[in-house]
Design goal:
The chain is an alpha+beta fold. It has three domains: about 80 residues, Beta Barrel (OB fold (Dihydrolipoamide Acetyltransferase, E2P)), CATH 2.40.50; about 190 residues, 3-Layer(aba) Sandwich (Rossmann fold); about 90 residues, no CATH class. The strands form four sheets. Strands 17-16-15-18-19-21-20 form a seven-stranded mixed β-sheet, with helices on both faces. It has a six-stranded mixed β-sheet with strand order 1-2-5-6-4-3, with no helix packed on it.
Length: about 400
């Protein structure tokens, strides 16, 4: 007799809702666990592998269902009291793994990445997600964007919903990051960008669809971010790593992998404000050349200002595809930090055609990262190392970094 057979009402009609008693299997990409009911796959949120749960079906597709665990009948030993007071079923969608012991969550994330690499990259990898900094699951986030509802209250979206949870007590947030903001009445439809920068200053900038720059509610439009002795002035509304230890960790990793390129050429693609361009400039030295490319003019402007003392660095505000097509010679190393959708076939083909012998590829989504790894391997690249970081504790998100050589 299966575990779920020991519980009554394996399927229950609750008005228009369907509830199932399910035994969950392996974790899937995206924060759910895989279960099965009458041959149909069910992706169950808020569950851990090996649990027996009562789940409510929330989405019906032709070959699978989505569901959420509303009662835990037989819990995993890795389940803990939620580390985020506002997350969970019917609550905010901010911390979808807040109920998992942090060490177990890192193992789970490693398993998900390994599965995606095997399926989409035809590559065998076995590891766990590494913690950043001291490994704290709470209080790591220094940048956050809040939505504003029709009543002028700022908050977090419920999972896959336009509704907001206006309690701002998310477990990810650094202490004091949003203090007092729940008492402010904002303009409905605005987005509230909040940053605690590396000088200890809080900045609050509001934007809407009509305002590109927005208006400043507190602090400045730009936040000071530091890695080592170098400082960046990054727009509060722009991109910088949200984990307080991420930028320093990734920069050091890129610097360590960018060896033996003195006097050479380095490409920093999807380079943002030039974090990796600074590390690459040190690696190639004054006789070398670094090209950093990003479509964001604001990010490129920040890069030019922060790297103005490095004559070997050229900052280009353009698409990566156009920039690569325009290059008359190749590079000795390329660093790519694309958006969640990944780099894709066209960009990876251009790198291979340019004969780039060493690539550092960064991905924040397991499936697109794994697909890109497969594309590199099809072009003759060998994976030398893969590191996976638990850069977004309490959530299913990760950051993957691969070193590929040809």
């Amino acid at each position: 007799m299966s575990a779920e057979d020991s519980w009554s009402d394996a399927i229950v009609e609750q008005g228009d809702a369907v509830e199932l008693v399910l035994t969950t299997g392996a974790a899937a990409n995206g924060g759910s666990c895989v279960a099965r009911h009458d041959g149909r796959v069910v992706f169950v949120r808020y569950a851990l592998p090996g649990e027996v749960v009562r789940a409510r079906v929330t989405g019906d597709r032709e070959s699978y269902w989505h569901a959420e665990a509303i009662e835990i009948l037989e819990p995993s030993p890795d389940r803990v009291e939620s580390l985020c007071a506002i997350a969970g079923v019917g609550k905010a969608g901010c911390c979808d793994l807040a109920f998992v012991a942090p060490e177990a969550a890192r193992v789970l994330k490693g398993q998900v990445v390994a599965n995606q690499l095997a399926r989409l990259g035809d590559f065998a990898w076995d590891g766990v997600a590494e913690p950043l900094g001291d490994g704290s699951a709470r209080g790591w986030r220094t940048r956050v964007r809040l939505a504003v509802n029709a009543e002028g209250h700022a908050g977090f979206h419920r999972y896959h919903s336009s509704e907001l949870v206006t309690d701002l007590g998310c477990g990810q947030l650094r202490d004091g990051l949003v203090d007092g903001l729940d008492g402010v009445r904002w303009k409905p439809g605005d987005q509230v960008h909040v940053v605690a920068d590396d000088e200890g200053t809080r900045h609050v900038v509001c934007t809407n669809k009509q305002q590109r720059r927005g208006h400043r509610a507190e602090g400045q439009f730009d936040a000071v971010q530091r890695v080592g002795s170098r400082a960046w002035q990054v727009p509060v509304t722009g991109f910088w790593q949200s984990h307080s230890d991420a930028a320093t960790t990734y920069s050091a990793l890129v610097a360590g992998w960018a060896h033996d390129v003195a006097g050479g050429t380095a490409w920093d693609l999807y380079g943002g404000a030039g974090l990796f361009a600074a590390a690459l400039a040190e690696a190639v030295g004054e006789r070398g050349r670094v090209l950093t490319v990003d479509t964001s003019r604001a990010a490129s402007s920040a890069a030019r200002a922060a790297l103005a003392d490095l004559a070997q660095v050229e900052v280009l505000a353009d698409s990566v595809r156009r920039a690569l097509t325009a290059q008359r010679s190749g590079a000795d190393i390329a660093v790519l930090d694309p958006p969640r959708s990944g780099a894709g076939r066209e960009i990876i083909d251009l790198l291979a055609q340019a004969g780039v012998p060493r690539v550092i590829h960064i991905g924040c989504e397991a499936a697109s990262f794994s697909r890109d790894i497969g594309l590199y391997r099809a072009q003759g690249y060998t994976v030398e190392q893969i590191r996976v970081f638990d850069s977004f504790p309490l959530t299913h998100h990760i950051e993957c970094v691969a070193l590929l050589v040809k």
